[in-house]
Amino acid sequence: MTDVLRRGRGSLAFSFLVQGVAFALLVTRIPAIQDRYGVSDALLPAFLAAVPILAGVGSVSTERLVKRVPPSRLLRWSQPVVLLALLGVGAGERMVELGVALAAFGLAVGVLDASMNMLGVSLQRSYGRSIMLSFHAAYSLGGIVGASLAWVGAHWDLALWVSYLPVVLVLLPAVLVGSRWYVDGGDAGPVAESGVEEKAGEGQALAFKLLLPLCLVMTVAYIGDSTVSNWSAKYLQDVLGSSEQMATVPYNVYMITTLVGRALGDLGVRRFGAVAVVRAGALVAAGGFAVVAGAPGAWVGMLGFTLLGMGLCVLVPQTFAAAGRLFPGASDAAVARLNVFNYVGFLIGSPLVGALGDLWSYRGAMLVPMVLVLVTLVYARSFAAQPDRYGGGHERPHTADVGRGSNGL
C-alpha cells in the first residue's frame, strides 16, 4: 500500500507540473498568438474569456462524468488533449483554427483541473496528513519552467509551433506512462474513519450550503492571482516608473515565492492546522496588496508582489482540501463544483482591476483585491469545521489528526 500511494503521489505531482508548463506556455505567448492570427485588440478579450468559460463547462461536466468514469481515467485522457490543443494553437493559420484549438484547450483544462484535484484530495485523505500543497507546488514549478521556455522561444524569435512541438513530444508520452500509477479514492485502500455520513436526500442541499464559503474564498484567491499575472508588469512600469526590463520581474518573483510557500506549506498545516495557515495567508496577501498600492518605487513594489506570492499560494490548495474534509463521501462532486469558481475569479479579476484603474487609479484598484482577500478571514472556520452525521456542524479533527498511522505514512 505504501508503494501504491507513493507512486500515485509522484505521478499526480508530475501531472500538476505538466499542466503548469502547458498553461504558462499559452498565456505568456499571447502577444505572439495575437500576431500570428491577426487577432485585434478588441477581439482578444473574447478569445481570452472563452478559455475559462469553457473550462468551467468542462469542470461542471466532470462532476457528472465521475459518477460513471474514475477521475484517473478522465485525467489520463484530458491531459494529452490539453497538450495537443496547445500545439494546435501554435500550428494553426486561420482564426477559426485558433478558436477550435482554444475551445478544446478550455474544455480539456476544466476536466483536467477538476480530476487532478479530485485525486489530490483522495490521496491526502489516504495519507492522513496534508500533502495538497505539494501538488500545487509542482504546478508552480511547471509554470516557472513554461515561462522560461516561452522566454527562450521569444528571445530566439521561434515560430510558435517550433516552441511548442518539442515540449509536446517530450511531455505527451511521459504523462501517458505516468498515468499508469494514478490512484483513485477507491483504489487507495482503507482510510481513517471520519465519522461523517452524508444523509440520503440531503446531499445536494447540504453540499451547496456548506460549499458556498469555500467557493467565495476560491473566487477571491483567483481575483488576486489574476491581478498579479495580468497587471504586475504594467503597474510597475506605468505607476512605479520602472524600466521595461524590470517590469518583467514581479511575476517571476511571484511565481518563485508561490513555489516556496507551497513547498513549505504542508509542514505549516501539519503543525498549526489549516485554519491558522489560511488566516496567515490571507493577512500576508492583504499586506502585499497594501504595500503594492502604497509603494513609492519599483523595489518596494516588488516586495509587495513577493508578499502576495507567499500569502495567496496557500489559499487554493487548502480550499480544495477543505472541500474534501467537508464531504469525504462526495469529495469528487465537491471539488468539481468548487473548481468552477477558479475560473469565475479569473474572469472577474483582470477586468475589475483594469476598469477601476481607468476610472479611478491603479493604486486604488489594488486596494479592492486587498479587501476581497480579507473576506477569507470571515470564513476561515470553514477550513476546519465538518458536519457531523446528525447535521449539527460540530468540529472534526484536522486530517492530520485523524487516523494518523493508519497506513504507516
UniProtKB/TrEMBL annotation:
PROSITE patterns: MFS
Chief localization: membrane
Protein's membrane topology: Multi-pass membrane protein
Transmembrane regions: 12-30, 42-62, 74-92, 98-119, 131-152, 158-177, 272-293, 299-323, 335-354, 360-380
Residue span, Major facilitator superfamily (MFS) profile domain: 210-409
Keyword Transmembrane listed: yes
Keywords annotated in UniProt: Membrane, Transmembrane, Transmembrane helix
Subcellular location: Cell membrane
Composition-biased stretches (Basic and acidic residues): 391-401
CDD domains in the record: MFS_MosC_like
Residue segments, region Disordered: 389-409
GO molecular function: transmembrane transporter activity
Annotated GO CC locations: plasma membrane
InterPro entries linked to this entry: MFS (IPR011701), MFS_dom (IPR020846), MFS_trans_sf (IPR036259), MFS_Transporter (IPR051788)
PANTHER family in UniProt: BYPASS OF STOP CODON PROTEIN 6, INNER MEMBRANE PROTEIN YBJJ
Protein name stated in the entry: Putative MFS family arabinose efflux permease
Source organism of the structure: Streptomyces violarus
